């Protein structure tokens, strides 16, 4: 990796190691993981349960810090930032999608997205326009008055995606975004990801167990027990 590459890539993981606990009880969840994700691409982190996917995603999303190694976002080393700086960076530049959607059941789709923007500190004069725009981008504007319980799993996931992209992040991180969906709906979520990449220039990193979506990725990083797996060499 040249210095120039490190500066221009969206994400650079440089020998990222994460150890939980100390002494005899210590667990090495990640061991010297290095990879690069370029702007405008979709990367899958795949591997069995316990292989370290979520731990790595949390470090990329500045929710956690490596024990050793560096994580660069747009050339900036996240590992040297204070917690306050990391929170601010996450609010401005990163969108997060969780497996279980994490939508508020008593709020409509629109209110869920708008609430997310308010929490992110967006001025109230802007939140309506930004929430509607995000719901439009995921094809949910017509159904935005519905509550999550009145929507299908695929539609709920679209609302969760709208909430994650409404503040215009450069990087979208998704933990098992297709796990709760049937394979057809799962593929349509990945097609939506592709549109976000092509139309908005977003960069997406997602974890998955789902082999059927891997052909739709630009890059797959296989993890095995916290190491980069042999599958990457195939
Ligand atoms: N906070 C923690 N404290 C201690 N050990 C942890 C912690 N978080 C993760 N681990 C351990 O680190 C390893 C990797 O876990 P991780 O959740 O990253 O795997 P994963 O590939 O995302 O699994 P899954 O697909 O089940 O979510 C596991 O052995 C796990 O038990």
Automatic annotation (TrEMBL):
UniProt cross-references to Pfam families, sorted A to Z: ABC_tran (PF00005)
Q: Which residues form the ABC transporter domain?
A: 11-234
Q: What CDD domains does this protein map onto?
A: ABC_MJ0796_LolCDE_FtsE
Residues in a coiled coil are none
UniProt source species: Paenibacillus terricola
Q: Which GO terms describe its molecular function?
A: ATP binding
Q: Which InterPro entries match?
A: AAA+_ATPase (IPR003593), ABC_transporter-like_ATP-bd (IPR003439), ABC_transporter-like_CS (IPR017871), ABC_transpr_LolD-like (IPR015854), MacB-like_ATP-bd (IPR017911), P-loop_NTPase (IPR027417)
The record's SMART domains line, in alphabetical order, gives: AAA (SM00382)
**UniProt keyword terms in alphabetical order:** ATP-binding, Nucleotide-binding, Transport
- Protein name listed in UniProt: ABC transporter ATP-binding protein
């Amino acid at each position: 990796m040249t210095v120039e590459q490190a500066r221009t890539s969206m994400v650079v993981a440089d020998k990222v190691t994460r150890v939980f606990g100390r002494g005899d009880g210590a667990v090495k969840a990640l061991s010297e993981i290095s990879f690069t994700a370029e702007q405008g691409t979709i990367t899958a982190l795949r591997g069995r349960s316990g292989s370290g996917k979520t731990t790595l995603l949390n470090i990329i999303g500045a929710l956690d810090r490596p024990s050793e190694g560096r994580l660069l976002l747009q050339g900036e080393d996240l590992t040297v930032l204070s917690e306050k700086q990391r929170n601010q960076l996450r609010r401005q530049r990163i969108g997060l999608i969780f497996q279980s959607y994490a939508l508020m059941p008593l709020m409509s789709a629109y209110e869920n997205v708008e609430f997310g923007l308010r929490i992110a500190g967006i001025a109230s004069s802007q939140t309506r326009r930004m929430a509607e725009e995000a719901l439009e981008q995921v094809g949910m504007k017509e159904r935005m008055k519905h509550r999550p319980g009145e929507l299908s799993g695929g539609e709920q996931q679209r609302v969760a995606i709208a909430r994650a992209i409404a503040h215009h992040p450069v990087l979208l991180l998704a933990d098992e975004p297709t796990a709760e969906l049937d394979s057809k709906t799962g593929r349509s979520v990945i097609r939506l990801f592709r549109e976000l990449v092509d139309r908005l220039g977003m960069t997406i990193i997602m974890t998955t167990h789902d082999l059927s979506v891997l052909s739709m990725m630009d890059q797959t990083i296989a993890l095995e027990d916290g190491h980069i797996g042999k599958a990457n060499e195939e």
